[in-house]
């Protein structure tokens, strides 16, 4: 099973609720664009483009936006947000583009959903023009991410990991992304981190947002979704603001590599 077949239905289950979170990631996208000095007329491919928030920034800067995502529902939302973009449903391990097509290829918290991370990066390398930039973003150090608390709350609602499953890698650890990029034929240039916070207005918005990504609500099951939402709201009480909303700060780790 390719990554698109596996993840598309899960990520596409609640596109409107997911959009509320993706729209808040604009500062992390802008930081990446600042680092690579995007120019008008350049061709940009966003792998795992979601509802197209990053593509909107690309188009507004005069570049040519292209996107691919596993979810038909998210792609439909991206097309509505950025009608001038070429957005497709597809698999990141088999990108439907010619060699040397893009000046910039990005993957914001997406490449690690690939069945084979290196294969996905190898495809990004293939479609990037010689010396084109490939931006790989992952979550930062666990201790710098407030969303780790939500993961701990949600984990008991999911089926247990197989006993023989390897531990989840820490992609933010020094050298990990560099080694993966090198294995894919890319040349690591530099890494950096940035921090930004998700903010939600109240308990209802927080609960909807937290069960939207990666099909969390569906994995937990319809009979336990309300229980999961209550557990999340209760468990995230330390992040409640005086106004009754929630603020969850998170660190993002990036590697800029060259094709």
How would you describe the overall organization of this protein?
The radius of gyration is 18 Å and the shape is globular. It has 259 residues and is of the alpha/beta class. Helices cover 37% and strands 24% of the residues. The protein has a single domain, classed as Rossmann fold, CATH 3.40.50. The protein has helices at 3-11, 15-22, 26-36, 53-60, 72-81, 117-127, 147-154, 176-183, 203-210, 216-220, 225-235, and strands at 43-47, 64-69, 86-89, 102-108, 128-139, 187-200, 246-258. The mean pLDDT is 95. The protein is built from 11 helices and 7 strands. Helix 4 (53-60) links the parallel strand 1 (43-47) and strand 2 (64-69). Helix 3 packs across helix 4 (53-60) and helix 9 (203-210) packs across helix 11 (225-235). The protein has a 7-stranded mixed sheet.
N-to-C SSE string, H for helix and E for strand? HHHEHEHEEHEHHEHHHE
**Model regions low in confidence, pLDDT < 50 over at least 5 residues:** none
Quote the average pLDDT.
95
Task: Outline the biggest β-sheet.
Answer: 7 strands, mixed
Our count of helices gives: 11
CATH level 3 topology: Rossmann fold
Strand order, main sheet: write it out: 3-2-1-4-5-7-6
**Helix content class:** 25-40%
Distance between the termini: 28 Å
How many structural domains are formed by the residues?
1
Strand content: 15-25%
Compute the CA-based radius of gyration.
18 Å
Q: In CATH terms, what is the architecture?
A: 3-Layer(aba) Sandwich
Write the CATH homologous superfamily.
Vaccinia Virus protein VP39
Name of the CATH class: Alpha Beta
